[in-house]
From TrEMBL:
The keyword Cell inner membrane does not apply. It is found in: Membrane. Residues 13-373 form the ABC-2 type transporter transmembrane domain. This is YhgE/Pip domain-containing protein. It is a multi-pass membrane protein. It comes from the Bacteria. Pfam families: ABC2_membrane_3. The chain crosses the membrane at residues 203-222, 234-261, 267-287, 294-314, 359-376. It comes from Cohnella boryungensis. Its main location: membrane. Keywords: Membrane, Transmembrane, Transmembrane helix.
Length: 396
């Protein structure tokens, strides 16, 4: 057939393979095979040693805390803190994905199991869901499994000791020994209803990137059409920046309204989310427009690739990524700062908690605004060269 004689038909296979390799690396290479490690978790040991009837002291809290810290099989970086209040402060500051609180009456409660009135101690597991849903769910599973295992081991040891001393075990004591530790779980900074299981910040950031890219492309093409004097090129660049920022404000408001009205997304402060999305949209637009004005249409390929390489990382905790991904993509992609900052606004109390990421976004917006305005000199120079070329032809 004539089709198979065409070189382009055979080249198409190579082109498709290249596209699959590039986008496969973007969508899967950065996250496939990632393993959690060094998840920061606060450990509070408030347990006070209790005196045993036969002499000596029982310090279950310290023993249990030491075993957890020495267990290298757990992908956890334990951080000892002095009190539950200090642990909660760290959770509010996005320092830990969770916390384990061993209460002051832990040893005393275990000793009470051998008495007619057993009072099992309550261990508290705090899960920082808003910090990252995937990482906090993993920490939640690890802490619950560790406490259930510890409860079973302690119950077995006490059952053996009581059986050796008395020969018979009261029903109440036997029931208490089945669960010598009561595990109470508490979710802090919950993600709310219809928040895509905590992935809403990443989704909203992706929408703003696509919307800003469409705006930047349209205004870039519009700014190329008129033949302007050199001085007006600067005004065109300024108008492009101002109009794009205004559109970013409108589109961010629409995105918030759409998420809440159409999809029932629970937003603690819709106004704060809208303002932060406006900052995100404006920063994205200025970045995209500056690259388009300086590089031209080829910048679209770079911006699309940046989006595809960044998208899989937006809702992942850095502790779940490989070191190469963290160093080469996660550490600098602007979409990461937008997603983390928006997560802080949505789940941790508003703008005051997102000051660091907001500062980065303001810096991006300012730097690329300067580059966008500076592109006016490039356009002015190009217009002058066209006039210089056309002048001899008009005056032979």
């Amino acid at each position: 057939m004539e089709l198979f004689k065409q070189k382009l038909a055979w080249f198409s296979l190579g082109i498709v393979l290249i596209v699959l390799v590039v986008f496969g690396a973007a969508l899967m290479g950065s996250v496939a095979g990632s393993k959690p490690k060094n998840l920061p978790v606060a450990l509070v040991v408030e347990d006070q040693p209790a005196q045993m009837p036969g002499g000596g002291a029982l310090a279950v809290g310290e023993d249990l805390g030491g075993k957890l810290e020495s267990n290298t099989a757990l992908p956890v970086a334990w951080v000892r803190v002095d009190s539950e209040e200090e642990a909660r402060t760290g959770l509010n500051n996005r320092e830990y994905y969770g916390a384990l609180v061993l209460p002051a009456d832990l040893s005393r409660g275990l000793l009470s199991l051998a008495t007619p009135e057993p009072k099992p101690a309550t261990v508290t597991v705090l899960v920082n869901e808003g910090m990252n849903t995937q990482a906090s769910a993993l920490v939640r599973q690890i802490l619950n499994q560790a406490m259930n295992r510890a409860s079973a081991e302690l119950g077995g040891q006490l059952l053996k000791q009581i059986g050796q001393k008395t020969g018979q075990i009261p029903v109440g004591t036997a029931q208490a020994l089945l669960a010598p530790l009561i595990v109470k779980e508490e979710i802090v900074h919950p993600v709310g209803v219809n928040n895509a299981a905590g992935n809403a910040p990443g989704i909203l950031v992706q929408l703003m990137w696509v919307g800003s890219l469409a705006t930047a492309a349209i205004l870039f093409l519009a700014s190329r059409k008129p033949v302007l004097a050199a001085a007006k090129k600067w005004a065109m660049a300024g108008a492009q920046a101002a109009f794009g920022a205004a559109i970013a404000g409108a589109t961010s408001g629409f995105v918030v309204w759409m998420a809440a009205s159409w999809y029932g997304m629970e937003l603690a402060s819709a106004g704060a989310v809208w303002l932060f999305l406006w900052l995100i949209g404006a920063a994205f637009f200025l970045l995209q427009s500056a690259l388009l004005n300086w590089i031209g249409v080829p910048a679209m390929a770079l911006l699309v690739l940046l989006m595809f390489f960044s998208m899989p990382l937006l809702n992942m905790a850095p502790e779940l990524l490989s070191q190469g991904t963290k160093d080469w993509i996660y550490s600098w992609t602007p979409m990461r700062y937008a997603a983390v900052g928006l997560r802080e606004v949505m789940y941790f109390g508003g703008w005051d908690t997102a000051d660091r990421n907001a500062t980065v976004l303001w810096s991006i917006a300012g730097a690329f605004l300067v580059l966008l305005l500076a592109s006016g000199s490039k356009k002015a120079k190009a217009a002058k060269e066209k006039l210089d070329v056309a002048a001899p032809a008009m005056n032979p």
